[in-house]
Amino acid sequence: MRVLVIGGSGFIGSRLIEALLERGNQVTNFDRAVTETPRVDCVVGDVRSVDELIAASADHDAIVNLAAEHRDDVQPLSRYTEVNVDGAAAVVAAAEANGIDRIVFTSSVAVYGLDKVNPDETWEPEPFNEYGRTKLAAEKIFSAWAESDPKRSLAIIRPSVVFGEGNRGNVHTLAAQVASGRFLQVGKGDNKKSMSYVGNIVEFLADRLNAPAGVHLTNFADKPDLSTKELVALLRETLGRTQGSKIVLPLPIGVLAGHVFDIAGKLTRRTFPISAIRMRKFAAETTVSTERLAATGFTPRYSLKESLVRTLAAEFPQLASSTHPLAHDKD
After folding, report:
1. Which CATH number belongs to the domain containing residue 143 in this structure?
2. 131 included as an active-site residue
3. Residue 179: its pLDDT value, please?
4. Identified catalytic residue from 80, 131, 197, 302
5. Is residue 220 part of a domain?
6. pLDDT in tens, 91-106
7. What secondary structure letter does DSSP report for 124?
8. How many C-beta atoms lie closer than 10 Å to residue 98's C-beta?
9. How confident is the model at residue 322 (pLDDT cuts 50, 70, 90)?
């Protein structure tokens, strides 16, 4: 199969390309910035450009759309719509122009909103921010495309927070705070989090290229879910940082501190690691049901604990001495 990966230079995309090549596919990477990669055709382009997508997707069998504006601090807010929604419309137009009838789209569990307990794919979405809202709008564009022709196959995957080697997202930030001894618990820590290891989700994305005709919507997470307290305890144990601060900062104070940093960011035009929305998200319940994922027959290669240990071994090699737990679990 010849596959166009939109956003193939990113954290998930680069790993997905490896998985696709291992399965014998031909791959084209379409991204704003690309690095020449053996066995991969590379095209520099913008997901909002119909003409560029039509040219890049010619003679391809399938498209995987990973491109997105997803950070909490994107400005102006219109960029979420431009990239996530207008980009989806451009991908659909390119698929129609070139007769491509197979698309895989990565959405997000952000469409459900915060503090939902294990929502499944039938739940009514309640996105709480522009990222979730625009991802949901993109889902509708892709679904309309698929439903207009019974031969078309659309797989929409809603991943929980994705982590793994080389990522500098939420899990890395938390682990770095624990490793430095500066972690401060915000909220009680009883809230649970669904997480997804990049090494597992790319295998599922590759599998979904062979989904039958129709629309297939699936949550993705590596179970079991951990509470924030359990996750921090696991990080401390694995990183050898069992002696950390026992102070618990009430959530309202944490959110207030986040607002202070938000104001400082606007005044100084700087981006700070602390914000009100990040405080809220950290203390919120963000779990999803994976019953439909299990029903596909997909079996993750790595357990959640093994995935975390592999990630920590790669991100904190200074701790992977011959006597440290990471030294025995990283391979």
Report:
1. 3.40.50.720
2. yes
3. 86
4. 131
5. yes
6. 999 999 999 999 999 9
7. P
8. 19
9. very low
